[in-house]
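Convert to structure. Protein one:
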Amino acid sequence: MRVDLFDFDLPDERIALRPAEPRDSARLLVVDPNAESHLSDYRVGDLTSFLQAGDALVFNDTKVIPAQLEGIRHRDGAGGQQVSATLHMRIGPNRWKAFAKPGKRIKQGDRISFGHSGESCFLGSLDATVEEKGEAGEVTLLFDLSGPALDEAIAAVGHIPLPPYIAAKRPEDERDRADYQTIYAREEGAVAAPTAGLHFTPGLFEALDRAGIERHFVTLHVGAGTFLPVKADDTADHRMHLESGTVSAATAARLNAVKANGGRIVCVGTTSLRLIESAAEESGEIRAWSGATGIFITPGYRFKAVDMLMTNFHLPRSTLFMLVSAFSGLDTMRAAYDHAIQTGYRFYSYGDASLLFRKD
């Protein structure tokens, strides 16, 4: 499909720079392409009104790490140059794939000292070698530290990698360490938050429990590739970046039981949806799954397992806007986004949410 079909104009003031307070007071646009009235306005706190006992919410329990690193590049004993790297996928105890800037000036074999200002307790810096260099500024970094020691050093010298549409407007601060994390985050490894989950509070969890709504967790470590624009003119020419995830055997069995009993699978966020669809057979049965997924969902995709999706509002010409258009229909989602813009919904990571019914 042509990528420009997924374009729209968003006024700059619609980009949220902070989350709603409290989190579940954010607006919720309910989109049901199968109903006579497709669009209705609510709050996230009203979520239980659209679910029924026996339904299951699926959350992504990945935890954002301070994956934005600043450092000095060294080569052949020459003076250093300031560089930055955003870690996006761990591929070993001491190896990470990262997007580096300025990418053109970094070469295989370069040494980079991160946290050179003395922020780290590990001899004042965190050092790595550029093991490989790929396309679009992607590099493989081989760190001198490994395992938990590397994790501790990254936590000491790194910064929360705010999405570029927020970082362009204000610097990251201490508040973001809490705001840009779900209350159920557990498995460290993401460089971007599963943002639909940012709306949940302990009080909303209690309301879901009283309503008989099940909660289940999967893990997909969101990579920085989620912010990369689609530069191709046609979706067939776009390459998705891989992200690592896991669906446990116990979770798969429980979700299959929910479906067998007439319940619906409701994914909180596109990350959990992509993982469940990666783990699902053509029959709709969900299996235990672990690995890297690059599933690219565009209109025409047949959803195998997921019935409803809660998600934030996404960027124009993005893979995520393509995904929601596949889920509820392109015309429906274009109308939904136009309604959201005209009625003051807040967009992107810290913005409001939508609850989508799958198009029949």
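Protein two, convert as well:
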Amino acid sequence: MNRRQFLASSVAVLAARPSLAQEAPFRTKYFPISAGIGLHDLTPAPDGTVWFTAQGKGLLGKLDPRDGSFKTVSLGQGAAPHGVTIGPDGAPWITEGGQNAIARVDPGDLKVTLFRLPEKFASANLNTGVFDKAGTYWFTGQSGYYGRLKPKSGEMDVFKAPKGVGPYGITVSPTGDVWYASLAGSYIARIDLATGSAHVVEPPTPNQGARRVWSDSKSRIWVSEWNSGHVSVHDPADGSWTTWKLPGERPRAYAVYVDDKDKVWLTDFSANAIVRFDPATEKFDVFASDKANANVRQLDGRPGELWGCESGNDRIVLIQTIASG
């Protein structure tokens, strides 16, 4: 870290305790999936459906929110899928840790195509993936790896992460940069898309446990800090950091998602809740689950909708913004 970055980090950190609020214009719905299926991550599709991974059963599923129905497809023997995202081709792409592969599922006939990692990376422990603006798929492996796949050619490169184990969440910004978070390493990193090298940027809170990341419309990187219970934001433009603690005594921030209004959504395992943070007012809204041990591990959304996976209850949760007037 150079002097400019150090100063920016030092002066911009806010050990803030924002006020707690409960806003009215929201509606919460739950969609039960099969008990024991092991929900983990999800992503909304352009057609209004929602794809989800079922790590416990090795499945990819598709929920139709109109009637709550869903269908699943097996990803193969020994499958244990983690993350899912929609590619430029409209298909769901999955980090499939059980087979140590990136999986693509055809949205029409549900055909599964696997892109396996090289044997020397057999224990990568794949976590999450994202597409950059050129259509390259970037992914993380918690055993200490990150990599890229070029879908058209099938070419794959895997890189050893700085500081070893920990790569977890990953995001792409409007400027086209790809960032990942390292849970065990307690840092975030920007990937050089040309060389594949990772530039480490450390949050101001030591050993904070940066778990997942998401970019806002200004290409600032929001971080959910599992160990510290903070949400923080890094602005690559000036090197600054700002940090807030989630409500409650011992928050545990797992997932993070930034919506189209630049409001920040997180999950707090300690509070058994989804939390919405407004950076403009520094206020939190808390949406507690109606069942214990929800353990929401992933958030994603589209305008007016926030989606999450309750892995503890094997339900998908939707928080809708209710139009006023």
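The longest strand covers residues 26-32. The chain has a mean pLDDT of 93.
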